[in-house]
């Protein structure tokens, strides 16, 4: 094997596009490992870790494009560069023929009536560009992460001063005037407004609202750190203000992982003064505290959606903590799975692309079977020693940084999860695989289809040692999403996957199995 590299000075390409090109190049005969990227410190570190760092790449800057590979001697770098050019042109063509302005200023000339700018750029450049947009009176959705909390605070204070929304950093989901932005689903219009500091949590709630026959007015994202004490819930408070004034919104839903206690009280004080009913899902939050401010507290994301729909219809909300399928049928399905396991099998492995869905799974399972190992555990002592290796009962969020260095998010590129499924299937103590399938804009064109071969391989592996692998999933998506919801469902069921209507129900199904094999 030989190491080859090439650097092209002052040639910028989108990082996600380059990750997709890297994925395609890996399929080339004779290539063992390859990276196509910009010369950032992070990409250089990745190249070094993979043994692909050359002196040429060491000297590259963040504005330089590079390719480095390890492969057979016969690999012709000129042919590789031509293939990269072809792939980049394909990506460009697939985006359509619309004019794409190179700067914010030129974009404003093309669309002077625009009032919202969406940013997905390296975090180190985000602050200056977002500030320019806010100064030009544009609302902002900032998809980028790696923005310091000090910068976030300054940007949100500027936005607040100007009466503008600053959704982000790391804001992955919003639906504004019925237009899905970033990772969002196609849901029916309705009278439920959502302010979410949690991307897939917001998706799950909006999708279930749609499945229940209701709809949303607006979905405002805040970014995951908005309810930290340093930020003070600035955008969630502005979101509540906006939805209270919105004539189409009759019910308001707030979604977040637990805020700091000080910020929680601040948000709830605003909720108490709100003229519209408010449902608050501070995941793992204090129910009594929420209810003491006159808000409706929730026990799951599905419960949140159920209560929102009830209020939107003028009905009294009640807790939903079970199955929407006949529980006798559920118990029969559980018995069928239990009859097939070997004596060794006892553990669940949760492989999630959605961080909030992974956290919800941990919450539900911890209450019944004890603490779960994770890359994002509820207690430090349950932190995986190696995030790439599961221990006993494990739930991992595959969208965390340790899994996405130099790779797209697993909702964009599911191949990392597909590999992990096969790996888990080799562990003779595993009984159940639990996972989410997230559809919608921004997600892979066929996330279910990408998993089928790995699921079948994992099941076959377990059968070869006289065991049985139960695979349980839920689909976070609607019939209106770009992916074919019905086809996704059929592919999974044909592969032997047990599908439940929501993440909470999928986890509760697994819980029933685990209680019997402990």
UniProtKB/TrEMBL annotation:
<dbReference type="InterPro" id="IPR016102">
    <property type="entry name" value="Succinyl-CoA_synth-like"/>
</dbReference>
<protein>
    <submittedName>
        <fullName>FdrA protein</fullName>
    </submittedName>
</protein>
<dbReference type="Pfam" id="PF02629">
    <property type="entry name" value="CoA_binding"/>
</dbReference>
<feature type="domain" description="ATP-citrate synthase/succinyl-CoA ligase C-terminal">
    <location>
        <begin position="351"/>
        <end position="510"/>
    </location>
</feature>
<dbReference type="InterPro" id="IPR003781">
    <property type="entry name" value="CoA-bd"/>
</dbReference>
<dbReference type="InterPro" id="IPR005811">
    <property type="entry name" value="SUCC_ACL_C"/>
</dbReference>
<dbReference type="Pfam" id="PF00549">
    <property type="entry name" value="Ligase_CoA"/>
</dbReference>
<feature type="domain" description="CoA-binding">
    <location>
        <begin position="188"/>
        <end position="280"/>
    </location>
</feature>
<dbReference type="GO" id="GO:0006099">
    <property type="term" value="P:tricarboxylic acid cycle"/>
</dbReference>
<dbReference type="GO" id="GO:0004775">
    <property type="term" value="F:succinate-CoA ligase (ADP-forming) activity"/>
</dbReference>
<dbReference type="GO" id="GO:0009361">
    <property type="term" value="C:succinate-CoA ligase complex (ADP-forming)"/>
</dbReference>
<dbReference type="GO" id="GO:0004776">
    <property type="term" value="F:succinate-CoA ligase (GDP-forming) activity"/>
</dbReference>
<dbReference type="GO" id="GO:0005829">
    <property type="term" value="C:cytosol"/>
</dbReference>
């Amino acid at each position: 094997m030989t190491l080859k590299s090439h650097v092209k000075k002052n040639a910028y390409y989108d990082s996600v596009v380059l990750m997709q090109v890297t994925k395609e190049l890996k399929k080339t005969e004779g290539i063992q490992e390859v990276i196509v990227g910009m010369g950032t410190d992070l990409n250089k570190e990745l190249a070094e870790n993979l043994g692909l760092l050359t002196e040429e790449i060491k000297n590259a800057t963040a504005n330089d494009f590079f390719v480095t590979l390890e492969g057979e001697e016969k690999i012709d770098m000129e042919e590789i560069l031509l293939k990269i050019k072809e792939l980049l042109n394909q990506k460009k063509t697939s985006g359509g023929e619309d004019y794409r302005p190179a700067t914010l200023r030129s974009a404003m000339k093309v669309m002077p009536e625009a009032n919202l700018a969406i940013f997905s750029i390296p975090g180190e450049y985000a602050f200056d560009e977002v500030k320019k947009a806010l100064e030009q009176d544009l609302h902002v959705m900032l998809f980028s992460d790696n923005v310091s909390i000090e910068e976030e605070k300054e940007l949100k204070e500027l936005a607040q001063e100007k009466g503008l929304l600053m959704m982000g950093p790391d804001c992955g989901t919003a639906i504004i005037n019925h237009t899905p932005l970033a990772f969002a689903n196609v849901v029916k219009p309705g009278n439920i407004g959502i302010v979410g500091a949690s991307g897939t949590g917001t998706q799950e709630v909006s999708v279930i609202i749609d499945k229940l026959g209701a709809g949303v007015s607006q979905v405002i994202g805040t970014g995951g750190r908005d309810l930290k004490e340093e930020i003070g819930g600035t955008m969630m408070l502005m979101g509540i203000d906006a939805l209270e004034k919105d004539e189409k919104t009759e019910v308001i839903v707030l979604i977040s992982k637990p805020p700091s206690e000080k910020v929680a009280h601040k948000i709830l004080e605003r909720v108490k003064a709100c003229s519209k009913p408010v449902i608050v899902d501070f995941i793992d939050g204090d129910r009594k505290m929420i209810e003491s401010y006159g808000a409706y507290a929730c026990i799951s994301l599905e419960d949140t959606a159920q209560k929102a729909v009830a209020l939107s219809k003028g009905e009294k909300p009640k807790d939903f903590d079970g199955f929407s399928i006949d529980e006798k049928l559920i118990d029969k399905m559980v018995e069928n799975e239990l009859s097939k396991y070997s004596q060794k099998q006892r553990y669940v492995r949760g492989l999630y692309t959605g961080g909030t869905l992974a956290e919800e799974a941990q919450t539900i399972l911890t209450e019944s079977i004890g603490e779960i190992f994770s890359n994002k555990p509820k207690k430090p002592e349950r932190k995986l020693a190696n995030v790439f290796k599961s221990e006993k009962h494990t739930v991992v969020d595959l969208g965390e940084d340790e899994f996405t260095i130099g790779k797209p998010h697993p909702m964009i590129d599911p191949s990392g999860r597909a590999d992990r499924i096969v790996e888990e299937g080799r562990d003779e103590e595993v009984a159940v695989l639990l996972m989410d399938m997230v559809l919608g804009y921004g997600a892979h064109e066929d996330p279910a289809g990408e998993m089928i071969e790995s699921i079948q391989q994992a099941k076959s592996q377990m059968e070869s040692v006289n065991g049985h692998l139960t695979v349980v999933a839920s689909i976070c998506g609607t019939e209106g999403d770009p992916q074919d919801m019905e086809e996704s469902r059929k592919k999974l069921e044909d592969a032997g996957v047990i599908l439940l209507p929501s993440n909470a129900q999928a986890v509760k199904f697994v819980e029933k199995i685990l209680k019997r094999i402990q």
